[in-house]
Amino acid sequence: MGTITFDTVSKSYEGDIDAVKDLDLEVKDGEFLTLVGPSGSGKSTTLRMLAGLESVTDGEIRLAGEVVNYLPPRKRDVAMVFQNYALYPHLSVYENMAFGLKRSTDLSKEEIKKRVNQAAEMMDIKELLDDRPKQLSGGQKQRVATGRAIVREPEVFLFDEPLSNLDAKLRKHMRTELNRIQQDLETTTIYVTHDQEEAMTMSDRIAILHQGVLQQVGTPTEVYQEPNNLFVGQFIGSPSMNIFDVVYDPGDNTLTGDFEYQFSQEVATRVDDHGGTHYTLGVRPEDLQLAEVGSDANTFEVVVELIEPLGRDNLMYFDLPEADTEGREYVTFVDPNYHPDVGEHIYLTFDDQQIHLFDEETGLNVLNEESPGRVERIAADD
């Protein structure tokens, strides 16, 4: 069984630097879970603690129910693929893939050869087994590194940003390949990346970290549509969520601040149940629509800043003429045949069923308070 449990796990370094803080997380047997977050969020440290390459300061890590905090890496039944491939330049592809089996197992030469050939065929590198790493492309090196992990037949695969050195086209292809292999082998996999697009396209579930603190765990759909807090809302999604400062008046269900908007009774009731008046409103780019002047009371004026053609859609960047938006970027999708002039004043609107409302003090999404798996602790509280 490849079930992994992080039970209140922390990692601290000298100088009171907390890389990971009280991590509670369970990875199911056979699951593909991605750890995602910006640089310094603690995702690689978490992976390295599981692999035995970093010690655990507090808490327990369990693999298949067994505490592995003090087990050496070779006894943890995990195989790790690194960002830099870590291939031995003087060894052939075959020798690189077989090296770990020769050093840490008592398998016969015939069994090792069988495993290497099977993995090479799975990774489509069988014709490269006699080559040296210097003869390989970046994508081929990544396949060798992955094949070296596969031959171990471990309980758990660990991937530490394995595709970051590849070009965009090859990276997308390798995502598909890694997903296919993981599904074929049904091996529990933890994948680390700072690329939220990789996380969204590859994962069964995503765990988002920020400043060493777990922010949310859920399926790609859950973390996108029901972000736990402001950090998750802004981090997950490209282009990023539009953010507005607003003040809520429960007397007439109205928002003021960056613009005016009146909530429907359904949304207003949910906000009233939470209490409070000062919020951060989040609206994803695809949830903003063009509106005609006076067509609806819930329209607001914006100034066109830039049109960026994408082919199927155009991205329209805009600003709010009556608000202090320094340091913020606003964007929405528009029809490719729509060509407003830069500096033109137009009107937008949105459906309040598609919004996110974050408490100004805690950052928590007040419209998502009943979400399963909600993480109440956020980095700002520590």
The helix/strand series, from N terminus to C terminus, equals: EEEHEEEHHHEHEHEEHHEEEHEEEEEEE
Q: State the major sheet.
A: 6 strands, mixed
Helix content: 10-25%
Tell the overall outline: elongated
Number of helices: 9
State Rg: 25 Å
CATH topology of the largest domain: the name is Rossmann fold
Give the CATH superfamily of the largest domain. P-loop containing nucleotide triphosphate hydrolases
Strand content: 25-35%
CATH architecture of the largest domain: 3-Layer(aba) Sandwich
C-alpha end-to-end distance: 35 Å
Core attributes:
about 375 residues, alpha+beta, Rossmann fold, OB fold (Dihydrolipoamide Acetyltransferase, E2P), six-stranded mixed sheet, five-stranded antiparallel sheet, about 25% helix, about 30% strand, disordered C terminus
Describe the protein in words.
This protein is of the alpha+beta class and 382 residues long. The chain folds into two domains: 4-225, P-loop containing nucleotide triphosphate hydrolases (Rossmann fold, 3-Layer(aba) Sandwich), CATH 3.40.50; 230-381, Beta Barrel (OB fold (Dihydrolipoamide Acetyltransferase, E2P)). Helix content is 25%, strand content 30%. The chain contains nine helices and 20 strands. The chain has helices spanning 43-51, 93-104, 109-122, 138-150, 168-185, 196-202, 220-225, 230-235, 265-274, and strands spanning 4-13, 17-27, 32-36, 58-63, 66-67, 78-81, 156-160, 188-193, 205-210, 213-218, 242-249, 254-257, 261-262, 278-283, 288-291, 300-309, 314-319, 330-334, 345-350, 356-359. The strands form four sheets. It has a six-stranded mixed sheet with strand order 6-7-8-3-9-10, with helices on both faces. Strand 11 (242-249) and strand 12 form a beta hairpin. Helix 2 crosses helix 3, helix 2 (93-104) packs parallel to helix 4 and helix 3 packs across helix 4.
